[in-house]
Write a structure and sequence with these properties.
single chain, alpha+beta, Nucleoside Triphosphate Pyrophosphohydrolase, eight-stranded mixed β-sheet, 7 helices, 13 strands, 25% strand
Amino acid sequence: MGGPTSSEPAVPAVAAMAATVVLVRDGPQGLETLMVVRHHEIDFARGAAVFPGGKISASDTDPRIAGRARGGPLPGEPQFALRVAAVRETFEESGLLLARHGGAMVDGTRRAALHQRWQERVAAGGNAFVDMVCEEDLELALEQLVPYAHWVTPEVSPKRFDTHFFIAAAPAGQVAQHDGSEAVDSFWIRPADALDECAQRRRTIIYPTLCNLALLAHTGDVAGAVQAARSRPLRRIQPTLGKRADGKLIPVLAPDCGYPELSPDLMNLVAR
């Protein structure tokens, strides 16, 4: 009476809606992506290198933001709030801002000034990000965000997310500046190098991030990565759990999911 019995299946936790941005730039040795390292006391992916992102906030549907966004979905559509959340979380965690001022993308000087004036207030939550957009006369560049992937945490997990990944070219002239609280470090890295560093146990990277790094590693520059995302069917990815011969559990993707296989070394790291 007080809860499910052993014969009753547990009700899966509700998956929180979230948005993540795969920021990319052309580096001297090919495509690079921005990753941030989450604080070791954060309750999810603690200490892991991830793409900037987070859960949707009530402020992402603030009516004031409706007239301050260009392109993308219309206000009121689910994808609108997801994209606002993507821009907000990216600014909060990495300092990069996908927005315009006076019709032009925010440059490095303005970004630095905005970060100094607003970052702490935005990180504190509430409506601070919307306040910044309105008071600083900004326009969110939602059309810069291209859908990249859609991952849902397995139902057996106690903490679940329904995460929409977007890919976007890093704004020219802007320098990343992690917040120091949720994100304690930030760095640009080639996707293949990130996979190698994880395999060598030099970085902690969670399974969905590994898979999307592996996908990104198949493109050589920003134009190619964005075009590949536009051309690729967007599938809902929800891993199941399979048991290996050694008895350990590993995440399993559908054969037609469109993701390359991870190396045995990486799969050993995610096995439990």
